[in-house]
Amino acid sequence: MLGQVLPAEIFAFMLVFSRIGAAVMLLPGIGENYVFARIRLSLALALTLVMYPLVRTELPVMPPSPLGLFILIAGEVIIGLFIGGASRLLISSLHVAGVVIAFQSSLAFAQTVDPNQGTQGAVMSALMTITGVVLIFVSGLHMLLLIGIRDSYTMFPAGDAPPIADFAQLAVYLAASSFNVGLKMASPFIVYGLIFYIGLGILQRLMPQVQLFFIAVPAQMMMAFLVITLVFSSTLMVFLHYFEENVILFTAGR
User: Which one, 47, 77, 136, 175, has the greatest CB density within 10 A?
Assistant: First the structure.
């Protein structure tokens, strides 16, 4: 009896781990390059232990052939990667806002490694993404991601083919909306930059003999820091609202 039950339970556990492990690999703040692989693996196993009793009745039986097993696990991995990738697309709105702010404040040449994007980028972009991830955990919005993983078994039942067309459509929507929200968050700096450069152009026409570059760049940076001080908190509140509004899509109508 035990020889029949044990393989089925191991298969079900590994099936749950395939989806959760793939999602954890990309979740913001957890799937970053600076998080040790052992920590991510331990967290994925812990979440699997917690969620396994909740979804055990929704799992299919073990297929008789190795090909069927491979197809089943591949489908679970695709769903997990989509959930993690979708949350990563939401974070990219902060990266867009940081890049725009850096260009409008003459800070684009100040480059550093962005740990959330895994590439080199502007300092403002790294500041925005790191602060945004911290606020996600402080405000408890990361729990919505875990609820979304649990409810994904209702929206995308295990054993069914992943809806690739719907995934692609939602990914395009999230990419476009993240770019739009990033521009909205950087809109005060766009307005400030426009006014500043118009005034600089008028001043250059009035006094062409003055080297305005040496005067304008320090003044532009000082004004940009002032604007950042005034609107930084409001900008991050816009991001948190946008993040919550879209993560709820994965929580099966909660």
Answer: 136
Give residue for tokens 């940009």.
224
**What phi and psi values does residue 120 have, to the nearest 5 degrees?**
-80, 135
pTM confidence score: 0.81
Q: How far apart are CA 237 and CA 148, in angstroms?
A: 22
Residue 191, both tokens: 């307005």
Alpha-helix residue ranges (DSSP H) falling in the chain = 2-24, 37-55, 66-104, 123-138, 142-155, 164-185, 187-206, 213-247
Give the type of residue at 152.
S
| Helices 66-104/142-155 angle, 10° precision | 140
Cα distance between residue 19 and residue 158, in whole Å: 9
% of the chain surpassing 70 pLDDT = 89
Neighbour-count burial for 230-240, b at 16+ CB within 10 Å, e otherwise: ebbeebbebbe
71/154 Cα distance (integer angstroms): 20
More confident residue, 109 or 188: 188
Secondary structure, 3-state, 35-97: CCHHHHHHHHHHHHHHHHHHHHHHCCCCCCCHHHHHHHHHHHHHHHHHHHHHHHHHHHHHHHH
Residues 6 or more apart in contact with residue 29 via CB below 8 angstroms: 133, 134, 136, 137, 142
Which tens digit of pLDDT belongs to each residue from 129-140? 888 888 999 888
